[in-house]
Design a protein that fits this description.
Elements (H helix, E strand, L loop, with lengths): L2 H12 L19 E6 L4 E7 L3 E5 L5 E8 L3 E8 L7 E4 L8 E6 L2 E8 L4
Antiparallel strand pairs: 1-2, 1-8, 2-3, 3-4, 4-5, 5-6, 7-8
Length: about 120
Amino acid sequence: MARPIIIGLAAAAAGLVWASAAAADNTEGMVGNTAVCTTSDGGQTKVYVESGGTFTLTLPDGQQTSGTVADDGSQICYTQTNPSTNDPPVCVSSVDRKVGDTWTVEARGQTQNCSLQAGRQ
């Protein structure tokens, strides 16, 4: 699987993050916890959302990427900034996740099964 697809899927799979003051704040469940997303081939990506509108991904090979995230109340868009890329942001519906939640995301033609785990894994 190509690296941009993994990054895009993992970002989409996180399913929520930083919210602007005008929008609903769906960050509480993600900040300080870990979204673990698994592809059909068994690769796991870990998504860490920080307060202040940033995220970090740890890819299956251990490499990390990061970027910004914005929630307008109806959708959350993840934009990778490090390393920089020409890929468009990955946007998903704005959903408040809690530790123990599981969900499936399809993005860019790929599927990932995710779960929100307590703490930084």
